[in-house]
Design a protein that fits this description.
single chain, 191 residues, mainly beta, Porin, twelve-stranded antiparallel β-sheet, 12 strands, 14% helix, disordered C terminus
Length: 191
C-alpha cells in the first residue's frame, strides 16, 4: 500500500488549458511542491489515467480506469498502483451533469459514500454559456459538506484549490476525483 502521508488534505491542482498531444496535470502541496503528476494521452477511447509521484513518471501511485468506453455516466475505478487494491470508484451522473455537474464517490460494492456537485444550478447554467465563470464543487458525506474543489479564474491554466480537511474519505479518492475533474470537466472547457 502507498504511504498515505503523501496525500495531503489541502492542495492545488493545475492543468494547462491548451495542449495538442495530451494534457499534463500537477498536484501541488500548499507550499508549491510537486505531490503528483499525470500525463494524459490524447485521443483515448477508453480512459486510463496513471497518477505518478514524479514528473519523470517513475513511481506510479494510483490508476484510474474507465469501466467502459464512451459512457455518458462513466464509472472510473481507482486502484492503488503498488498493491493493486481497488480503493473505490467515481461515477459521473450523466443526465444530472447536463445542467449541473454531479459525481458519486463509491466504496465497497459500489455503494455511494460521498457526492460531489457543482455549487449552484443557476450558476451552472450560466457557465454553459459563459465558461469563464469559475466552478466550485462541494463534497458531501451523508448530506454534510466535508470538502470543496474551487476553481480559480486564470486565463491559461485550469487551477483548483482543493480542501478535504474535514473529509472522512480515503485521501486517495480525493486526489482521484480531482484528477477526473481536470481530465473530464477540463476537456469541456477546451483544454
Amino acid at each position: 500500500m502507498n504511504d498515505l502521508t503523501r496525500y495531503q488534505p489541502q492542495f492545488v491542482a493545475q492543468k494547462a488549458l491548451f495542449s495538442f498531444f495530451g494534457s499534463s496535470f500537477r498536484i501541488l502541496g500548499r507550499d508549491g511542491s510537486l505531490q503528483f503528476f499525470v500525463k494524459q494521452k490524447a485521443f483515448k477511447i477508453k480512459e486510463e489515467i496513471t497518477i505518478f509521484a514524479d514528473e519523470g513518471q517513475t513511481q506510479p501511485m494510483l490508476r484510474i480506469r474507465a469501466r467502459s468506453a464512451l459512457d455518458f455516466s462513466a464509472t472510473y475505478d481507482v486502484v492503488d498502483a503498488a498493491s493493486g487494491e481497488r480503493i473505490g470508484a467515481c461515477r459521473r451522473e450523466g443526465l444530472k451533469s447536463i445542467l449541473r455537474d454531479s459525481w458519486l464517490i463509491l466504496g465497497d460494492g459500489d455503494a455511494p459514500i460521498a457526492k460531489l456537485q457543482e455549487d449552484s444550478g443557476a450558476l451552472a447554467l450560466l457557465r454553459r454559456f459563459f465558461p469563464i465563470i469559475p466552478q466550485t464543487f462541494h463534497v458531501s458525506v451523508d448530506g454534510q459538506d466535508v470538502g470543496y474543489i474551487k476553481q480559480r479564474f486564470t486565463l491559461f491554466r485550469l487551477t483548483y484549490d482543493v480542501d478535504f480537511s474535514k473529509s472522512p474519505l480515503d485521501p486517495r479518492l480525493g486526489v482521484a476525483i480531482t484528477v477526473l475533474l481536470l481530465a473530464i470537466e477540463g476537456r469541456q472547457k477546451g483544454g
